[in-house]
Records
---
Amino acid sequence: MSGHSKWATIKRKKEKTDAARGRAFTRLIKEITIAARHGGGDESSNPRLRTAVLAAKAANMPAANIDRAVKRGTGELPGVNYEEITYEGYGPGGVAVYMEVLTDNKNRTVAEIRHLLSKYNGALGESGSVAWIFSKKGVITIPAKNTTEDDLMMVTLDAGAEDITLEEDLFRVTTDPAKLEAVKKALEGAKIAYDSAELTREPANQVKVEGKAAESVIKLMDALEEHEDIQNVYANFDIDEKTLEAMED
């Protein structure tokens, strides 16, 4: 689990709500639209679109919504012109924060992000200030009940997987971004069902946060996650289980 952001684990433990589902749909629609805009509407020749559509189906998004998002991206239907931007900053305790954004109003979005960071004792940084900490990786999660570690290693390592870890009831397979599709196909060929497969960013190091700083970091991450323009947010913090349990109580 070296270098893995604690936030990914914490998010899985959070209760699913209708509001969270609505935000997920909004993010997925934006991602489908921009993927189709950049790479065309054919999933077979556009890996980014294929990944986004699979994620949308896994989230039970209606097929009509997916189709409209693709057509907005290809220009067959009118739609909003989203701009892809990344923002970098710092949270409480010197935690590095990296945000991937899709917005139709850059000035509004940066002002709102700056406000959220400041509210929770953080600050917006310059471009390049923390990007070097986060490496792009492919990550596939597989329910442990679906396979054994030995079988998973045999199938995925030959296809290009870099690491396999077990986190509670999920196996987590990490790949080079270019190998994500090959590892997915290997799993499908071996009939090993996976929960999710996505490109993410892994921190090279982690900052230990405790007490009030830990609480502020979680509140900041929640606030950034809820922002409709932020597609993905990554941070290099670590919180020990004892502190987490105390916060949950």
---
Amino acid sequence: MALSGMTGFARCEGVLGAWTWFVEARSVNGRNLETRFRGPPGFDGLERLAREAAQSRFQRGQLTVALQAKRADSAGAVRVNIEQLERYLDLAERYVRQGRATPPAMDGLYALRGVVEAADDTDEPDARAEIEAAMARTLAEAMDALKAARLEEGTALTPVLGGQVDRIEALIAQAETEAGGQTEAVKDRFARRLSELLDDRTNLDALVVQEAAVLAAKADVREELDRLTSHVAAARALVAGDAAAGRRLDFLSQEFMREANTLCSKSATIALTTIGLELKAVIEQFREQVANVE
């Protein structure tokens, strides 16, 4: 399985008898999988099928699936709703007996709402089931097309992420080179600080030891650089791997930033600080791209 993005769009159409329909499926970034479905009245079972189709294909993203259907008018095929007609007759009978109204004419009754309806063969359970099954197939086709669109986006993202990881690795190498100058910079800073402390000899030995320990710890960035290097290897493995990597890459980008922040805070030279700031900028770009990886 190649790297997959989380944004995409697909549209598929279907037809059966007098019915035509189309399905539009689109997705955007999301920390979890969320599916919203809109379908035609009377086909409520399609919502469950849409959610199952999404769960079987995707792990993350906000999906919107819309199915719109239209039935061509039958050529003059109508039916009389006898139950509705009887209700109108029952209501009119009382007023006729009281002399408050004349018996209703049939043409007037036929004009009342709900008495005459267009014939709909989908009222037959077998016919409706056949149409719903055909719509479900189109729904599955749209989901497959959406998955293909997201994979295509993932293919485009792969070299972008790889290039950013390469840049992070190059900056780590620069930081390793520059970190060699940390010791000399700290020595100079310690000498200046010691000169200031010599003006007050009270508790001088304890202050010297404390200051030396603080500055020595600040000079050591080997641990941060080692972690950053291991994160680079992990990022490359995830980008090239077969499993969905979005959540792990997102976590890794946070770890990248944590180490870069510590590197900057420990820096004793302007050059190393500059490298650390550029490293943070590239990591932020990496994080923004990772936000669209499934």
---
Amino acid sequence: MDIVIFGTQAFEREFFDRANRTHNHRLTYFEPNLCDRTARLAQGCPAVCAFVNDRLDREVLGILHAGGTRLIALRCAGFNHVALDAAEELGLTVLRVPAYSPHAVAEHTVALMLALNRRLHRSVARVREQNFSLNGLVGFDMHGKTVGIVGTGKIGALVARIMGGFGCHLLGVDRHEAPECLTLGMRYVNLDTLAEASDIITLHCPLTPESYRIINARLLSKTRPGVMLINTSRGGLIDTRAVIAALKTGRVGSLGLDVYEEEADLFFRDLSNEIIHDDVFMRLLTFPNVIITAHQAFLTREAVEQIAQVTLRNVTDFERGEIPADNRVTRQLMMR
């Protein structure tokens, strides 16, 4: 099957070309993201492969459908950027990669925690300038601290296991209590209680209308002074302006982000010679207690290999009329 892959990064091609040896699809790579201006590049192509920052709203889906596209193959787990109602009305099938390497994201989450706690980003910068002073680099023992995990699916459960290994107390928020987390001693509470009791809050829930800006001024007012906040899930979970205000007062003591609500115009691009016009993002960069990585939590060899394999297998299954139910995205899935 002909597949147009939008928003392609150089590192992805190797993995997709290798995975395609067993599928023999005809792959066309485009570096630009999918949007209303680029959608017509898929004219006559039955399958389009999209990533997290590609636009899949009603307008774009309409253009794709008119051009003959029948399948949207997401090479990611999240699907909040897809207008699922429009996709169903147009008869477009949407498939995703529900799990590639939860270990990759969980490990990156903990790396952000450790780097923020021990000020590793500042320490490395100092030593490169031959400044060996330890002033301002005092951290805290992770052991005995309370970690609040919002969303205890595969990734959240792995974070719980790692933090349990540090000797942390675990609190969780989720509609469903994970047996593995209960075994680790996690106590499930409501979000307000988690905010009030946690030294570290880390987000691992999907972005839905209910979870949009779940971290907001009201909730931040309930947190412990100096709380560490980590988000490696979706940028829209956080009201960034409210977090900036909390950073200024010290209510948020440190912030680690791998995602940002307006990241589509920033991440996966080299903007080192350009002026960034996003004043909110640039304000975040001024804080010494903030670390931002550019949506790289998933980025391990194992994860990218799995993404490529599952994405192309989804297309093959669709071509054969054997659509995998677990990988299909519907409006009902969003409401779970």
---
Amino acid sequence: MLKFYFHATPNSMKVAVLLEELQEPFDVIDVDIFKGEQHAADYRKINPNAKVPAIIDDGVVVFDSHAILLHLAEKHGKFLPPTRPARAATLSWLELVATGLSPFSGQAIHFLHYAPEDIPYAKNRYVKEVERHYRVLDERLSTSQFLAGDEYTIADMALFGWAASAGYIFGAKGLDDYANVKRFMDAMNARPAVARALQLKERHTFRSELDDQARRAMFPQNA
């Protein structure tokens, strides 16, 4: 059975949605990143980069959320269109999330909530880039049901992972400034597989206190 190494992060939630959409059995193995479990020697053998998520699928190790999305979509022949135009669109939007929205969102959240000192320039830099990416996504979704077109793909699951955490960046207004992304998220949240992924998140509890121990575990390079 597939093993899913999980902490309730945006990147892990992308994979959780795909696993639930595939309706294939899997075991969840908690990796508490606030406790530093991602740095354990056994886990580093699975993901040398000491991040979540990772999977072991029929003895094949895959780490990095987008690599996992591609691996599983190709293996099962689902959520990655076979025709060249639709596949190209899927890969383009998937990589926009991977190289743009994901890292800028992560850095925005870090400097807004986790950094030990207030650095206005960093907060402005990363929040403005997140806003820019959401404007690009919002424009796309103004003319397209899903990112790749009319077909639901792994690119949409990738967007869901971070868009579900937009409130950590934008506060109470959430995605109100991006009506089409918000419409998209409403449609995502109505999917049974997404509901199951969110239930999975609720069933697994992790350490949440951001004290010195957690900072060392999550950001050891800063110690």
